[in-house]
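Before relying on records like the one below, remember that each one covers exactly one chain. Contacts with other chains, cofactors or solvent are not represented anywhere in the record.
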Amino acid sequence: MLKGKTALVTGSTSGIGLGIAKALAEQGADVILSGLATDAEADALKAEISDAYGVKAGFSGANLTDPDAIEGMMGYVARDFGGVDILVNNAGVQHVSPIEDFPVSRWDLIIALNLSAAFHTTRIAIPYMKEKGWGRIINTASAHALVASPFKSAYVAAKHGIAGLTKVVALEGAEHGVRCNAICPGYVYTPLVEGQVADTAKARGISEEDVKRDVLLAAQPTKEFVTTDQIGAFSVFLCSPGADSINGAIMSMDGGWVAQ
């Protein structure tokens, strides 16, 4: 379905981003991974995707908190892949702290990576999309783009910002064949979360199953984690003709979290 398209997925060396990249590659899109990885790790991921799906794979280790580095990454994609048809802004980081104790450096980092990076990649990618008359921008938001939780001031602010940015870009691209939407997952079971489960169980003296159900999934009525495969499949759908009329949507994928 996506043969001849090029997808850039930020924050895609593991977890949600890698799941999305693989799902797009499975549909025939060439993919550029972006994130933290050694040269060996990046080469292994590129080879894995190329071998599994028969597509061209690239990698950028650009620091996405640096606008100049983002310019360099987008230049690399333009030179080696011709431009970005599908942009997935997924890179992010989290920090939890009461606002009065929240480190200013962590606030700056979270806003730069979770919000500003999406602005910079989008502003550079969208002229190419408009010129071609087709483009898809998918922003990985969060349930926290719609609701708040204590001690997550920077993350919640950034994700609410992503929701607003998504709507603006959707309106600006609407008559040019460009669609921009945001996916808002609840808790996703990634290797990072798996480690948090073990640490929390040890700290609280309860089982890992109790941590999953009563701590992490307390707000998700299904009591089930969202999976990276589900997010990947949803991303593929948003790039399909069936989603041509979906634009500027902030879509929950959270087991009913924000329905409460």
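The first strand starts at residue 6 and ends at 9.
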